[in-house]
């Protein structure tokens, strides 16, 4: 199990080996943390995303998958782009898509480890524009990190939450799960 940390702050300022982007399938940018990462990291990241679209991902990145690019001007060497699901509202579809949210976190952690990252920072994927309830995002995020095998995640997994409220939500999920955060 990796060491799990919760902090309040701006993901783009993290001094870690890799940061995770809550992107969309187009990989061509957007608002929220995605927009902030492209602004802070510069045009090299978008150029790398365009190359991925022209080569291995002509139809875009499917929800739940992860892919890596350079970190451009960021302190982080890599950006791991993932796509979380859009909240469909309470019901059976939410259960199906929850598995995709889990996959997004699991695949992002695994890809960062595969790249050789010793540390990775992640936002609350799907908890913004995509509207997923924050307490459930927190449970999936912390639960997935806590369940990761040694070689399936970097040794340090840091969740960087944009508000004190989201930080508290993640801390509560950690306590509910009995995770050491
Ligand atoms: N550092 C850390 N967290 C941040 C930052 C930041 N600089 N900026 C925002 N957040 P969102 P999603 C938080 O909407 O829900 C984009 O347009 C934010 O407060 O960025 O997965 C993409 O292109 C929230 O808690 O991602 C997609 O189209 C969390 O990051 C779509 O939004 C995630 O919010 C993806 O939506």
From TrEMBL:
Pfam families: Macro. This is O-acetyl-ADP-ribose deacetylase. Transmembrane segments: none annotated. InterPro entries: Macro_dom (IPR002589), Macro_dom-like (IPR043472). PANTHER family: GANGLIOSIDE INDUCED DIFFERENTIATION ASSOCIATED PROTEIN 2-RELATED, MACRO DOMAIN-CONTAINING PROTEIN. NCBIfam families: PRK00431.1-6 (NF001664). PROSITE patterns: MACRO (PS51154). Residues 1-178 form the Macro domain. It comes from the Bacteria.
């Amino acid at each position: 199990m990796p060491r799990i940390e919760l902090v309040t702050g701006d993901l783009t300022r993290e001094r870690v080996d890799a940061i995770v982007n809550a992107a969309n399938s187009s990989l061509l940018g957007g608002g929220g943390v995605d927009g902030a990462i492209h602004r802070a990291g510069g045009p090299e990241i978008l150029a790398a995303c365009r190359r991925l679209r022209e080569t291995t991902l002509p139809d875009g990145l499917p929800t739940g998958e992860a892919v890596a690019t350079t970190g451009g001007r960021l302190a982080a060497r890599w950006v791991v782009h993932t796509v979380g699901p859009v909240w469909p509202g309470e019901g059976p579809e939410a259960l199906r898509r929850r598995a995709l949210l889990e996959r997004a976190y699991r695949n992002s952690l695994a890809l960062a480890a595969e790249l050789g990252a010793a540390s990775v920072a992640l936002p609350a994927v799907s908890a913004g524009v995509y509207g997923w309830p924050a307490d459930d995002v927190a449970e999936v995020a912390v639960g997935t990190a806590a369940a990761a095998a040694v070689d399936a995640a970097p040794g340090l997994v840091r969740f960087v939450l944009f508000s004190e409220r989201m930080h508290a939500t993640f801390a509560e999920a950690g306590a509910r799960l009995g995770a050491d955060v």
